[in-house]
Amino acid sequence: MVHREVLMKKKLIGILIAALFVWNGYLTYSLINLENKPTTSTDSSGNTETQNFVSNIESNVSKVNEAVESKVVSVINKNNGTTIGSGSGVIYKNENGVISIITNHHVIDSGNEYSVRFSNGQEETAELVGSDEYSDIALLTVKKDYDIEPFKLGDSSLLNVGEFVIAIGSPLGVEFSNSTTFGIISGKDRVVSVDLNGDGVADWDMVVLQTDAAINPGNSGGALVNMQGELIGINSMKISSDNVEGMGFSIPINEVIPIVTQLEENGKVTYPIIGISGVSISDLNSFNLQYYGLKQDDKGVFIVEVTKGGPADEAGVKQYDIITSIDGVEVTSFKDFRRILYSKSVGDHVKITVTRDGASQEIEVVLK
Fold it and tell me: Does the annotation mark 205 as catalytic?
């Protein structure tokens, strides 16, 4: 009886072991098939099935980079023959033996001679067509018959946060030219304050794209590219701090092209004038606030002087008026005022709200 129970137990154990081997084989087979099988997803219409491999990201980045790397160049800035800096640039046009290259204003600033090194290693003399410090955009041309396709321009207004992008440029100098980094669009319509005159005080706001694709010194003027290989931004700056990682900024291509068009046509960017000198109330000291009868919490631009015969003077704007809005957009500082003004064009009619003797009134001004 005991012998029979032992035999039954051994038989049962054998069955369990066999079952475990079968189950293990099934799991192994399923895992192998899962690794090799593409994942599927369906769009909101329920009609389109897409197949995505994990390796697709790596493959797509390589293909995009291969397609566009020749369209990115290194820009060398010289002063009287001495190299004073370098950056990157993108090929915007290639027509009739003239190659047009977009870069940053700060890449060519303080120089009087420029050269461009192409991805094939050839270095050519470049001519500065014009630049604009407010938009931080410059345009160079190289007279050379190279068979290089210019960038296809994307639409930066259609970008989505989280969308994959690559940044291409020459970080830390031409020896690292055509370096590529990969990341996402981290934010749109970011407002970054910059100091244009080097006095340590921010005097201009730039509207930029934020990306975590690494942007280092020398990347300035380089390309931010979407996964269709389209140019969607000009890399411009990064936040550099021990406490900050992966915060680079790029000028949206939709903001760049109108500036470049003006540079092509006129060699400079023309901004409208209104004919006033002003200061942010927040920048006035306590003595000036008291002298002009202002309060610490007042906001706006205090008009120090009105240009005689200028647009503001002709419209009836007075000295010591306080500008509080333009076309319904609140103005709290001179930075706000200048940014809104420079978004307008010569000949535009703008409605300026001013405070005079404690009362608010609206004045229409024709910009010149």
Answer: no
Q: Which of 88, 105, 106, 131 is catalytic?
A: 106
- Residue 294, Cβ density class (10 Å: 0-12 exposed, 13-18 middle, ≥19 buried): middle
Does residue 220 have an active-site annotation?
yes
Query: Which residue out of 156, 170, 220, 333 is catalytically annotated?
Result: 220
Q: What span, in angstroms and rounded, lies between the C-alpha atoms of 183 and 214?
A: 8
Candidate list 136, 212, 321, 336, residue with the active-site label: 136
Report strand pairing: 179-194 vs 152-153: unpaired
Longest Cα–Cα distance in the chain: 122
Residue 252 is encoded by which pair of tokens?
């949206």
Told to judge if 106 belongs to the known catalytic residues of this protein, a careful annotator would answer: yes
213, two tokens: 């694709």
pTM of the model: 0.76
Which helix (H) or strand (E) covers residue 103, if one does? strand 98-103
Q: How far apart are CA 26 and CA 83, in angstroms?
A: 67
* Amino acid making up residue 109: D
pLDDT (tens digit, 9 = 90+) per residue, 278-294?
A: 999 998 999 999 999 99
Query: CB atoms < 10 A from the CB of 97, how many?
Result: 10
